[in-house]
């Protein structure tokens, strides 16, 4: 088979911005060091692209969610720097962790027993301080299964760090009291937003994810965090509409006059969902509004303000994340992780 021709979608990763974001979050973490959440294929941006950059910037603590995410990360960093947040749900997962030398995050008494039965060894422990997803309850701290563990990092996760919520302080207090009751070497509470909550939340290790990749979960991070992901699409067709012509699924747009439109091949599989209707593509600062409904693999753009654009030219998706989140009704997490694998990854 000949080489594939280059795709009409490209996702440029600003490697400088990614490295700088890690360094900024590490500096903001004060005496704590920053790790890196690299689950979900580095929030959609690509493990093979992002993990080496985070490693070279200085990160030494990498977090994934699933065991299936371990092998790609191990191409770039040693196993004792990788932890699996979902822990050991089965004996097979515990055996795999031990064989690979990767640390599980123990998330329940049952997981603690599975880990010990498989032979145990160093692990992290998640304590639930109110988010009610994973983690032992504080009143389980002194149980035999937990006492038997060799706990490296004691973790908890904040539910509302991106808001000024009373829950932040209540989780902080719950974490404080459980810390005294469980032997551990280091403690870790803050995600990206938690880093901006201040020194009380930093402990020994912070675990930023979203903000590494350009997400801005709190206004305090606005001037520090730089955009990392820049998706672009090529116009695969340009056409003229007459007054009264309609565009796309369900004919939701009707041309008020003769106009030029461009088609990009982009849609649901690329994370561009119907809720994107009010978003505005751009070319060199010129706005190119979306016309009609986002259809399966196709989006029509108004080229009224860009007469110079023709077939084959590149246009930019609106990926200022806070702004895109408010226009699409999607969270910044979703906007990143939904970007599919039809984009060719390019580095700057
Ligand atoms: C995903 C995750 C993080 C990173 O959170 P962000 O909000 O993306 O910074 C940190 N810790 C745990 C346990 C996580 O699941």
TrEMBL record:
Its cofactor is pyridoxal 5'-phosphate. CDD domains: PLPDE_III_AR. Signal peptide: none annotated. Residues 228-348 form the Alanine racemase C-terminal domain. Substrate binds at residues 133, 296. GO terms for cellular component: cytosol. The keyword Acyltransferase does not apply. It comes from the Bacteria. Gene3D superfamilies: Alanine racemase, Lyase, Ornithine Decarboxylase, Chain A, domain 1. One of its GO terms (biological process) is D-alanine biosynthetic process. SUPFAM superfamilies: Alanine racemase C-terminal domain-like (SSF50621), PLP-binding barrel (SSF51419). Keywords: Isomerase, Pyridoxal phosphate. InterPro entries: Ala_racemase (IPR000821), Ala_racemase/Decarboxylase_C (IPR009006), Ala_racemase_C (IPR011079), Ala_racemase_N (IPR001608), PLP-binding_barrel (IPR029066). One of its GO terms (molecular function) is pyridoxal phosphate binding. The active site is at residues 39, 249. The modification N6-(pyridoxal phosphate)lysine is found at residue 39. It catalyses: L-alanine = D-alanine. Pathway: Amino-acid biosynthesis; D-alanine biosynthesis; D-alanine from L-alanine: step 1/1. Its EC number is 5.1.1.1. Belongs to the alanine racemase family. Catalyzes the interconversion of L-alanine and D-alanine. May also act on other amino acids. PANTHER family: ALANINE RACEMASE (PTHR30511), ALANINE RACEMASE, CATABOLIC-RELATED (PTHR30511:SF0). This is Alanine racemase. The lineage of its organism: Bacteria, Pseudomonadati, Pseudomonadota, Alphaproteobacteria, Sphingomonadales. The gene is alr.
